[in-house]
Automatic annotation (TrEMBL):
UniProt source species: Croceibacterium salegens
Signal sequence residues: none
GO molecular function, one term: oxidoreductase activity
Keyword line: Oxidoreductase
Similarity section: Belongs to the short-chain dehydrogenases/reductases (SDR) family.
Gene3D superfamilies associated with the record: NAD(P)-binding Rossmann-like Domain (3.40.50.720)
Protein name (Swiss-Prot/TrEMBL): SDR family oxidoreductase
Transmembrane stretches, start-end: none
SUPFAM superfamilies: NAD(P)-binding Rossmann-fold domains
Length: 257
């Protein structure tokens, strides 16, 4: 889905995207770059570099692999991003994992903690270190990736459901704390998006395939990664300057259907 020629609402802005090698991360990085932003992609050193190469981003960085604690890794990528871009105007706080699918009584505790550390602690720490930079410059937009799982329940997905509910709570709290400084914080909530994550989830839950979910979607199709990228680009831009603390559903009516 291409933009009109010359459409550059993010020109001059520096964007940091975490989970940048994943489906939604790479699509959003490309969209932000198309709209004029200088994009810095952040992902794990083992992540596939293919999407990064095709996106033609100015920079890609990894959290310092030798730093064992998550706080140091997040602080490290924020410092590197600031050194590369001199400022951070847009922060797509997107990195996340789905975890194992199992009932609560069978769910491995170590796996629950792993999902929490990536999906909740990672989002919290990202804002902890990016918010002061944006508050000092009196501007900025943070978009946290939650999910429709942050608004509804689902059996056998306790860690993912809880983590995405937590992202929504963090977003609402941060939006109130950041508002006096001219910084906006919103969340995006993807529905059934064609991606590796959705394929793995439906397989592990015993669903024959992602297309089997289409009848549950009122508007009648699975979402695309570009659907999410466009939503994030809107929240990143000054076109949404009066929007903060908002949970933007991109689910073609699933949560109300």
């Amino acid at each position: 889905m291409s933009d009109p020629a010359g459409y550059q609402p993010l020109a001059g802005k520096v964007a940091v995207v975490t989970g940048a090698a994943g489906a939604i991360g790479s699509a959003t990085a490309r969209k932000l770059a198309e709209r004029g932003a200088r994009v810095i992609g952040v992902d794990h050193p083992s992540a596939d570099g293919g999407p990064v190469e095709t996106a033609r981003w100015p920079r890609r960085i990894h959290p310092a692999a030798r730093r064992r604690d998550r706080r140091s890794r997040v602080c490290g990528y924020v410092e590197k991003s600031l050194a590369l871009g001199s400022r951070i105007d847009i922060f797509f706080n997107n990195a996340g994992i789905e975890g194992t699918q199992a009932s609560i009584q069978d769910y491995p505790t170590d796996e629950f903690v792993r999902v929490f550390n990536v999906n909740v602690l990672g989002v919290f720490l990202g804002m902890k270190y990016v918010l002061p930079l944006m508050q000092a410059q009196k501007s900025g937009s943070i978009i946290n990736t939650s999910s429709i799982a942050g608004l509804i329940g689902a059996a056998n997905m306790s860690s993912y459901i809880i983590s995405k509910h937590a992202v929504l709570g963090l977003t609402r709290t941060a939006s109130l704390e950041a508002a006096p400084f001219g910084v906006r914080v919103n969340s995006v909530h993807p529905g059934f998006i064609e991606s590796r994550m959705l394929t793995d989830i439906v397989h592990n839950l015993g669903v024959p395939g992602a297309e089997a979910l289409v009848p549950a979607v009122p508007l009648g199709r699975l979402g695309t990664i570009d659907d999410i990228a466009i939503a994030v680009a809107f929240l990143a831009s000054d076109e949404s300057s009066y929007v903060t603390g908002h949970s933007l559903l991109v689910d073609r009516g699933k949560t109300v259907g």
